[in-house]
Amino acid sequence: MQAIDTLTPCPCGNMAGYTHCCGPLHEGAVAQTAESLMRSRYSAYVLKREDYLLATWHSSNRPASLKLATQQPAPTWLGLDVKHHEEDGEHATVEFVARLRYGGGKAQRMHEISRFVREQGRWYYLDGRFPEG
Ligand SMILES: [Zn+2]
């Protein structure tokens, strides 16, 4: 267990703090919405929780490894902005903009519309596409 329970705000930007936001999900709690799963996956990128990212990736599309620990240049995550969240039964989409920087490079925006699917009460990340702009 890492000593990360004092993260306020949460890496995903929630002022409630990590222990009241993404922390419980990283420890196995069920995400109530696709948006909260998406936020917890962003936080997992920040915290390099590769295990969590793979566990919440739908098996049909899951990579074998993300190699976050050895990624070069390493990304610095600068913030998350959830633009839109839509759920329809067992399917959901979340549109967001994440800001990051690779090494000493310029900050860049990653604009993605992610698709999620719920199976046996748990949301999984399916895939994402990158709209213009
Ligand atoms: Zn969070």
TrEMBL record:
<dbReference type="Pfam" id="PF17775">
    <property type="entry name" value="YchJ_M-like"/>
</dbReference>
<dbReference type="InterPro" id="IPR048469">
    <property type="entry name" value="YchJ-like_M"/>
</dbReference>
<feature type="domain" description="YchJ-like middle NTF2-like">
    <location>
        <begin position="33"/>
        <end position="128"/>
    </location>
</feature>
<comment type="similarity">
    <text>Belongs to the UPF0225 family.</text>
</comment>
<dbReference type="InterPro" id="IPR032710">
    <property type="entry name" value="NTF2-like_dom_sf"/>
</dbReference>
<dbReference type="InterPro" id="IPR023006">
    <property type="entry name" value="YchJ-like"/>
</dbReference>
<protein>
    <recommendedName>
        <fullName>UPF0225 protein ISP13_03610</fullName>
    </recommendedName>
</protein>
